[in-house]
What we know:
Layout: H1 6-27, H2 34-41, H3 45-49, H4 55-78, H5 86-99, E1 105-106, E2 109-110, H6 111-123, H7 127-154, H8 163-183, H9 190-200, H10 202-208
Antiparallel strand pairs: 1-2
Helix pairs in contact: 1-2, 1-6, 4-5, 4-7, 5-9, 6-8, 7-8
Amino acid sequence: MARVSQAHLDARRRQILDAAALCFARNGFHATSMQDVLKEADLSAGAVYRYFSGKEELIAAIISETLGEIREAFEAAAGQSPPPPPDALVSSVMGRALALRESLTVDGEPAFPRLVLQAWSEIARNDELAAVLQEGYDAVRAAWGRIVEGYQEAGTMRSDVPPDHVARTMIAAAVGFIAQQSLIGPAPVEVLGNGLRALMSMSDAGQEA
């Protein structure tokens, strides 16, 4: 029997995750059955269950993958000296997150923001998924903390504010932007960057006055 390549296995796993993400974004976790995922992926039950034991594992994989991509983007920025300014950094990372599944749409709109809201609602009642989110959140928060320390060391940010406070605030801005994408409608990521840039300019404007 011919040996299946790793590239083939990775592509099949991607096919299943994308199908599940579409189903979850369209109908929610509880209204989606594994049969729905099989139909969307156009695969047999055996092909899908080879990779994932069920819905819970699919949901966890999607959440973990998304947070991992965001964490990697922040960690890469933390390695720069000094890091990019917050407005450019958040815009870049959010643009990367929203582009992850750019081809996946529901009713003509990106599926990713809807999927995020579905994940949040599920996490409130699922301890295992809550643990996955907590791990990812802690990693992103730690990366942001290192970025803030870089700003402070470079003298571009005041040093009397704990880095973790800034990290939590920037994460809140990013999370709120994703929520708006789902609840209000899509908007270019430049909106977030421009808003942050304007807020960052307030002290300078005040000094000039």
